[in-house]
Amino acid sequence: SPVDVEKHSISPVEFLISILLKVKSLGKKMSEVSLFIDNALYENYRYKKNQDGTTITIINYDGDEEKLEIPSMIDGLQVTAIGDNAFEGKKMISVKIPEGVITIGKHAFRGCINLEEITVPASVTKIEEYAFVNTAWMKVQEKKNPLVVVNGILIYGENCGKNIIIPKGYLYGS
User: Fold this and answer.
1) Which residues lie below 8 Å from residue 172, measured CB to CB, with a gap of 6+?
2) I want to staple 126 with a disulfide (CB 3.0 to 4.6 A). Which of 97, 103, 107, 161 is the partner?
3) For 149, phi and psi rounded to 5 degrees?
4) pTM for this prediction
5) Rounded Cα gap, residues 32 and 125, in angstroms
6) Strands of 153-156's sheet, edge to edge?
7) How far apart are CA 85 and CA 94, in angstroms?
8) What angle do CA 152, 125, 150 make, to 5 degrees?
9) Model confidence over 17-26: pLDDT tens digits?
10) Handedness of CA 168, 127, 117, 123 (dihedral sign)
11) Exposure of 68 by Cβ count < 10 A (0-12 exposed, 13-18 middle, 19+ buried)?
12) Which residue, among 130, 99, 132, has the nearest Cα to 114 in the 3D structure?
């Protein structure tokens, strides 16, 4: 049942802190709590505003489209990042990431086992660890070359089997 803050003679800040402490005592990360406070929903996309207040990060997708084209704008704000685990385990076959996205987070598309086609725009300059691991696309790329490079970023090389030297001008993951 709802608690009347006025009745219990504690400030709203103290009340919020007590809730956060209760959640923490249940083993939840504080960042998981803020996830519910600082985000919004647009169609099947859950997103949060970035610190600049004019761009957003997609933090979750709850749709089931097989051929997905991620929007470049949501609620009038530019999409500049795909967050950690945002599309993990989804059933899509193809995904087109829009121009303007700069960062693809950790495990963003991990476990999308049917994902065969990925369009990554030139604007992407940071791809964090295991962003595309356990996808059909990654398996094909790895067969072509055990060092998988996207936009000059080495995103995977664990099955290379030897020490590697990253050439000048290439980045490794995050």
Assistant:
1) 153, 154, 166
2) 103
3) -120, 130
4) 0.73
5) 27
6) 148-150, 153-156, 171-172
7) 17
8) 35
9) 666 666 555 5
10) negative
11) buried
12) 132
Q: 33 is written with which tokens?
A: 């709590």
β partners of residue 40: 47
Rounded Cα–Cα distance for residues 96 and 61 (Å): 14
Helix (H, G, I), strand (E, B) or coil at 37: helix
Neighbours of 97 (CB within 10 A): 22
Looking up tokens 């030139």 gives: 122
Q: Determine contact, residues 87/111, Cβ cutoff 8 Å.
A: no
- Could you tell me the two tokens for 166? 């990253």
The per-residue pLDDT for range 56-106, each reduced to its tens digit, is 999 999 999 999 999 999 999 999 999 999 999 999 999 999 999 999 999
Query: What's the mean pLDDT in 40-57?
Result: 92
